[in-house]
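Side project, low priority. Logging it here so it doesn't get lost.
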Amino acid sequence: MFPIVHTRRLSDAVFEMGVEAPAIARKAKAGQFLILRTDENGERIPLTFSDWSAEEGWIRFIFMRVGKTTHQLSRMSAGESLADVAGPLGVPTHVEGLGRVVVVGGGVGAAVAYPVARAMLAAGNEVTVILGARNADLLILEDEFRALPLKELIITTDDGSAGRKDLVTAPLKELCDAGAVDHSMAIGPAIMMKFCAATTKEAGVPCVVSLNPIMVDGTGMCGACRCTVGGETRFGCVDGPDFDGHLVDFEELMSRQRVYADDERLADAEYSRECSCHT
């Protein structure tokens, strides 16, 4: 069992949770992820670390309530426990010797972008962060990013309710066109990463993306997280989650992500009805 030590609601449907997991916290690195189950009958879901403390023995992750399991998670509080937490999984993000880096975090992708930006700074890189969301209410971790010694933090929202009214690709293109970027990383919805990759490819700037395919076991055995990169089949869990964004088949990725969308909504609706019946 993994005791919950911290919970925080970041927006209407986005939550942060901290769990006591000293063995995982000692080994976690930026870009890696974990797989958890809420109880012994629950499904396994992958979530990326947003923070951790090796000294204090806790890990944190951020999730959006989109299905039954994340709905269950959102109703849990400090003092309760998760049945399983496995990790750290995946290959850590490469952070050394990159130079002038732009990290783009879209929506809940900011949860991954934060430790990545922090690690890149610690490795001696110059880091600019572009943080985007549909509106101000969906922006997360802005204060945490402002506390980092970034070269610049650029905020964009689709409706202009915070920062500049733009997509994240607009300031990314401006920086690339100005010759101010040696390396970029995009983390967020697949469609956002697709267009960040296209923007940087046109400018001749390397772009790494953190993929979020459907995943079951996290060890490369089930094959559920397979994706096509450079015409070859790769596995998000053991080969990634980071890949060269210029080589990713985003259309295939997005198609596979939608396979269980209807089942997910149905399971969440049924769980919501069960919760209503017991309140």
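Brief comment: The chain has eight helices and 16 strands.
Revisit when time allows.
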